[in-house]
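Running log. JK asked me to keep both predictions on one page so they can be read side by side. First protein, sequence followed by its tokens:
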Amino acid sequence: MTEIRLIKRKELDKTKWNQLVELSAASVYNQIYYLDSLAEHWSAIVYGDYKGAIAVPYTIRLGVKGIYTPNFIRAVDWMGEKPECMDEVEQLLKKTFTRSNLNCNQQLFKESTPLYYQVLSDSSELKLGSQSTRSIKKFAKTGLEITAISMEEALPLIVRELKQKVKDLREIDFLRFENLLLNYKLSTCYCFGIKANSTLHAASILIEWNNELLYIKGGVDEFGKQHGLMHALIEYTIKFAHEREMKFSFEGSNVDSVRQFNLGFGAKDVVYYNWNWNNSPWWFRILMKLRK
């Protein structure tokens, strides 16, 4: 029987992992650099001699180890060949960790719940909804232009809006996010923005990966909201992707209003899965509830 192992990050064979990411056409989130930047800790389940594998990000709280999905990572993939029975993988993880809240791009485990992100495969799918159409008309009346900007210009606006909208993000999350993008391979990163009188009012950050342009995050100020700037920026980046024969992917959100915004461009839902269970001791559960 082929061996299934849980390997610590420091013991990972980087060359074999990178080959697996490339050969399996896994999502951008499985890169070592991405996981190192955003996960508190991570190990990997490895099947045989890297015939297959999955990243396992985890936290340690009061000595309790729990699997989790790091902020700014949508989901990890099982890459390569899968064992005939995933029960052995599930048992190994439940033996090592006391809880899980892991997003996977495949349905691997029994307790999995479907989630959705949105994708436009080609230009024929770009169909603007009524709200998108109205907003883009507002933008056109401003006479402003969409231009390429630097990561250093884009991040302050985006982080400022994230801090206002997502209250459970901590300062360390923003530092990890900024470090990830400021040091990412520039040739595969795109930033676009809309300025008026040298003030940036809307910005978006995208990463090219496996013939896909992935929308990472965007930000818009009050002026931009009133004049439809974000809708115009999204339409522009979708067309930018399709002109280069890449599909366009939103990062995904469990917030229905964000999903509806994405669908307003003709995007289609794509399913991924959340694996959630909790065998933590009673005192730990109480402390976590009090902390929230």
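And the second, directly underneath as requested:
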Amino acid sequence: MLHQALRVFDQAVWDDLGIPLYSILDTRYQTTFYNLGPYCASLFLYLEIQYLMDGVLLARQQGSADDFDVSLDNSGVKTSKPLPDETPLILDILHDFSSFFPPNMSSQAVPIPISLDWCTPKVKVLAAIILEYFSKSPTFQCIIFVEQRQIASTLSKILPAIPELDGKVKTAFLVGQGVNSEGVSKQTDQYHGDAVKQFRNGEINIRTLLAWWPTIEC
């Protein structure tokens, strides 16, 4: 699994890259795993690490003067701080898994069918409920409330890829302002399109919505 492959590297490597794998991202991964299943958890982790690594490499190419890219030698001259030796291996791992996941966070298209065997019982129940409503009214619409940002985005991506729901659902996700997003990049929140307008116009029939009232822990 992707999670096991990435955890081969010591925490010091991720600290040098500025990626909180062993703290915040690992917690988010576990939450997604137990709520949605192994594929969704890996999907979240892949897209998050890919996005953060792209940022590290881009900053490097642009010669960014932040703490990661630039340091001072004993003479006070700015010098580039080297990337960890393990960086190419991390990029190779991401490449090896790339055929299983969307190309980036903004894409809703999952490239492989998602078996319900890869999902938790609650996702299986959700799929059964959707199928029941679809059988009664193919024009049905629903909103699914969740408690964390990555749950909203990954669930929205995988539902259309479940073979039993193929052709029956069109999804989008929406998160509220002011919700704690610690440890999750802002890209996780981005859905390219107006989810509210699409829902009202009937272009999508399922919307995953992050509940953002204070009693919910995110």
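Observation for JK regarding the second prediction: The chain has a mean pLDDT of 80.
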